[in-house]
Automatic annotation (TrEMBL):
Residues 1-23 form the signal peptide. This is ABC transporter substrate-binding protein. Keywords: Signal. Transmembrane segments: none annotated. It comes from the Bacteria. It comes from Bradyrhizobium jicamae.
Length: 326
């Protein structure tokens, strides 16, 4: 081969390399392991919000991203599902709440973990600080402790004659002990006595309501937990059976028949969590991505439920609602 021909051939091949590299990059399909707490039907709007956020950032499922879903029926199943993602070597584990983050953290110290509604990431040790997470975990926080205190205040205003209020909390939700301490601390100031009712299973939820009813509570503060979200219909039924108005953090529980909710806009949090997935896939270390706190909070009342329970919502309280179900 003549030298000129060799140089021409080599130069042409070199010119093609960037194109080949770009083609290979464009066909890369990133894999996201979604560690859910089922049934999946209870989280349709949140999953849609995450997908919407990813689409806005240029991701198309089946083309450059794939979401592998695993849904735990019980909290003790989440670790096994997290280890499945580790064996699959997914690019990111999406673990929405502390219930899923804790087992994901135990399963891997290297695969990035993104959360969307973590209650207390610093307090539980999942990140070193909000500004500098410092490990393989980051995402959006919903400030459960502060929200729970506000929910107790709202329930007290809604039921001004209440002297005893039940608190349904889940021992399998890592953030709940801290939230329980916070509502206990504010209860005396509000002039109410609390009846704490732990429940980590459906059977325990049913037993807890029987106990709270016998203890003479006027209403129930239901601390935010994936279990309580997926059991929205059951909790609404127990509310009517025992005539105990409930307040939640998640609007979905009010849509299912609960009286009132006050909490972070979960759809907004899940949509914004897509930003973290995008940054990580583009090479940013999760340790350098500050945790953001929820900025949108919603109060929703179900007036159909209020009427069925024979409750008149004080006008000063109802006027602050962001939405009302007639």
């Amino acid at each position: 081969m003549r030298r000129r021909d060799f140089v021409t051939l080599f130069g042409g091949a070199a010119a093609l390399l960037p194109l080949a590299a770009r083609a290979q990059q464009s066909t890369k399909v990133w894999r996201i392991g979604y560690l859910g707490f089922g049934p999946a039907s209870s989280w349709t709007s949140e999953v849609d919000a995450l997908r919407s956020g990813l689409r806005d950032l240029g991701y198309v499922e089946g083309k450059n991203i794939a979401i592998e879903f695993r849904w735990a029926e019980r909290a003790d199943q989440t670790f096994d599902l997290a280890t499945q993602f580790v064996r699959m070597n997914v690019d990111v584990i999406f673990a929405p709440a502390s219930t899923q983050v804790e087992p994901a953290r135990r399963a891997t110290k290297t695969i990035p973990i993104v959360f969307a509604q973590h209650a207390d990431p610093v307090g539980l040790g999942d990140v070193a600080s909000l500004s500098r997470p410092g490990g393989n975990i980051t995402g959006m926080s919903m400030l459960l402790t502060e929200i729970s205190v506000k929910e107790l205040e709202i329930l007290r205003e809604t039921l001004p004659d209440s002297a005893r209020i039940g608190v349904l909390w889940n021992p399998t939700t890592p953030s709940h002990p801290t939230a329980v301490k916070a509502v206990e601390a504010i209860s005396e100031k509000l002039g109410v006595q609390l009846v704490l009712a732990p429940a980590g299973t459906v059977t325990e939820i049913q037993a807890a309501f029987l106990t709270m009813s016998r203890e003479g509570v006027s209403g129930v503060l239901v601390l935010s937990s994936p279990l309580y979200t997926v059991q929205g219909v059951l909790l609404a039924d127990l509310q009517m059976k025992y005539r105990l108005p409930e307040i939640f953090a998640n609007r979905a529980n009010v849509d299912a028949g609960g009286l009132v909710s006050y909490g972070a806009d979960l759809n907004d949090l899940y949509r914004r969590a897509a930003f973290y997935v995008d940054k990580i896939l583009k090479g940013t270390n999760p340790a350098d991505l500050p945790v953001e706190q929820a900025s949108r909070y919603l109060m929703v009342f179900n007036l159909k439920t209020a009427k069925a329970l024979g409750i008149t919502i004080p006008p000063t309280v109802l006027a602050r609602a962001d939405d009302v179900i007639e």
